[in-house]
Amino acid sequence: MATLSSSMASTPNPKPRLRGVVFDMDGTLTVPVIDFPAMYQAVLGQEEYLRIRAESPSGIDILHQIENWSPEKQQKAYQTIADFERQGLDRLQIMPGAAELCGYLDSKRIRRGLITRNVMTAVDLFHQRFGITFSPALSREFRPYKPDPAPLLHICSVWDVQPDEVIMVGDSLKDDVRCGKEAGAFTCLLDETGRYDSPEYANVDHKPDFKVSSLVEIHTLLESKFHLEP
User: For this UniProt entry, what's an example GO CC term (predicted)?
Assistant: First the structure.
């Protein structure tokens, strides 16, 4: 079952209104296929990777790390990242429960959006391959990208809804939960393996309102915790 954080335990009735769900893509709507530690080491070098990993318990923001590099070094880093992402596209699979959850949201007329740090080519391929469309669907071409709250606030503006009428669903504390929290939205962390139960994540700055181990659980979570209204 989904777990309710202590910060949400005192939420009074009536249930908060929910008008939209915004999803991360890689590792949330799609099965994780990119070897991120290998990608980070390829970009940063092993020594620098280990140093940054020790200082960043929530995970490494590789795009942020390379922002101030020289143009030549940055171009090489982006090429390495693109190579790993391209390999991931070849193995793209939809996450179990994603299609059913989207069908449920459609039946309730709840909006569906997407925010990813991947490129728009990957988003287009997802839409085409699985026949499920998200709108707006923002890739890293939208600046600033996650974890900045700007993309989520942009979606709320397009939808003409308040951030506290939206929930951000993703598998990353550092990107998805932080983005949602800083925008003022509800957040749900998808943690399939229980990795975020580790003590190293006990004192992170941004904690999710809810945590689930599969997308299948989100249907029940939304039904029990929110008033679903278009």
Answer: chloroplast
Domain residue ranges of the chain, discontinuous segments joined by +: 17-31+94-228, 36-90
Is position 83 annotated as part of the catalytic site?
no
Is 90 a residue of the active site?
no
pTM of the model: 0.81
H or E stretch at 127: helix 120-130
Alpha carbon separation from 112 to 15, 156, 162 (Å, rounded) = 20, 11, 15
Give the integer Cα–Cα distance in Å for 181 and 179.
Answer: 6
Dihedrals phi, psi of 112, to nearest 5 degrees: -130, 125
Q: SS3 breakdown of the chain: % helix, strand, coil, rounded to 5?
A: 45, 15, 40
> Residue 188 pairs with which residues in a beta bridge?
169, 210
For 17-31+94-228, which CATH class? alpha beta
- Record the tokens describing residue 186, joined without a space: 């509800």
Catalytic residue among 26, 61, 171, 191: 26
pLDDT tens digits along 71-116: 899 899 888 888 888 887 778 899 999 999 999 999 999 999 999 9
